[in-house]
């Protein structure tokens, strides 16, 4: 029986390294995926596969689609396709670096490393704005139901957001709480939050059908830039897409107040294959093992 990649369902690690690869032209995609199978267990390292390798093999993965660029009043959501995404989970930055280098070297004939970003857990699970992130995440059976399809596959939406701390710090504490819809001091939800508040925009039960996702986001920092690596797993990409459309105001013209201090600079959807006998189950792409 195939199962989900274990790292998807586990609590956040202290540290992460996110690797985004493109596909080398004219390369042997099946050979590259076979290398991946030998190196990625789905637990310490989680893999997501984009459309390019799937279509290069002449295959289809039902539910895997391009990430749509969106535009709302004053906001743009970029789409930046990725052929292979690896989420390295760990607790030692040096070990993560060396694991990443081994993967980069082994995959190099087929997958070219385009971006490598280090993530970390901050203040017990807060975004760099200081707000607790993940409070309304489904847990246990509900997390499985939200994130994992019947065959053990999952889909992930990955977006790197860059925070503008100057803008954030220029706001009064009450304005900041109104952006999120929760109080930073005690994480209480605000009864009188404006319609633009992030938790009002994304309230998972308020969509029809309900739009539950399993968020596994972490702060990142690179030189002088920092923000949130937003990572949301779903049994399909539909719940994420419904939330994103509402955030940019495509439902009612109201834009999520988060955009007052942060913007996404990347955006992609990937398919996270299931695991069978401790290895990624790529039979959907490579034929039966
Ligand atoms: C920099 C970007 C973002 C930041 C800083 C952020 C932060 C937060 C915070 C602080 C909460 C409240 C606590 C919690 O329930 O986790 C929250 C809730 C939530 N966020 Fe975000 N978020 C970001 C982007 C997104 C995006 C892009 C989506 C989806 C398109 C999203 C979906 C959600 C959902 C579904 C909830 C829970 C809503 C509920 O059911 O109450 N977030 N976020």
Automatic annotation (TrEMBL):
Originating organism: Zoogloea dura
Name listed for the protein in its UniProt record: Dyp-type peroxidase
GO cellular component: cytosol
Cofactors (names): heme b
MF annotations from Gene Ontology: heme binding; metal ion binding; peroxidase activity
Keyword Metal-binding included in the entry's annotation: yes
Keywords: Iron, Metal-binding, Oxidoreductase, Peroxidase
Keyword Metal-binding: yes
PROSITE patterns, per database record: DYP_PEROXIDASE (PS51404)
Superkingdom as given in the UniProt entry: Bacteria
Dyp-type peroxidase C-terminal domain: residues covered: 126-275
InterPro entries for this protein: Dimeric_a/b-barrel, Dyp_perox_C, Dyp_peroxidase
């Amino acid at each position: 029986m195939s199962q989900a990649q274990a790292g998807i369902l586990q609590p956040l690690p202290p540290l992460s390294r996110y690797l985004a690869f493109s596909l080398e032209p004219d390369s042997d995609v099946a050979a590259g995926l076979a290398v991946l199978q030998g190196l990625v267990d789905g637990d310490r390292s989680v893999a997501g596969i984009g459309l390019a390798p799937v279509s290069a093999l002449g295959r289809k993965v039902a539910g895997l689609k391009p990430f749509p660029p969106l535009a709302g009043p004053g906001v743009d959501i970029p789409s930046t396709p990725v052929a292979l995404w690896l989420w390295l989970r760990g607790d030692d930055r040096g070990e993560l670096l060396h694991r990443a280098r081994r993967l980069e070297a082994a995959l190099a004939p087929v997958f070219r490393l385009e971006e490598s970003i280090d993530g970390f857990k901050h203040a017990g699970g807060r975004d760099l704005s200081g707000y607790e992130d993940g409070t309304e995440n489904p847990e246990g059976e509900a997390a499985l139901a939200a994130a994992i399809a019947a065959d053990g596959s999952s889909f992930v939406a990955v977006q790197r957001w860059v925070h503008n701390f100057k803008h954030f710090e220029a706001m009064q504490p009450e304005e900041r709480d109104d952006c999120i819809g929760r109080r930073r001091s005690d994480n209480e939800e605000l009864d009188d939050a404006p319609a633009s508040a992030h938790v009002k925009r994304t309230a998972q039960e308020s969509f029809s059908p309900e739009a539950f996702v399993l968020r596994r986001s972490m702060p990142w920092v690179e030189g002088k830039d920092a923000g949130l690596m937003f990572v949301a797993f779903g049994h399909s990409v539909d719940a994420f897409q419904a939330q994103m459309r509402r955030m940019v105001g495509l439902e009612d013209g109201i834009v999520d107040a988060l955009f007052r201090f942060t913007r996404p600079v990347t955006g992609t959807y990937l398919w996270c294959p299931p695991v069978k006998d401790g290895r990624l189950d790529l039979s959907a792409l490579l034929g039966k093992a």
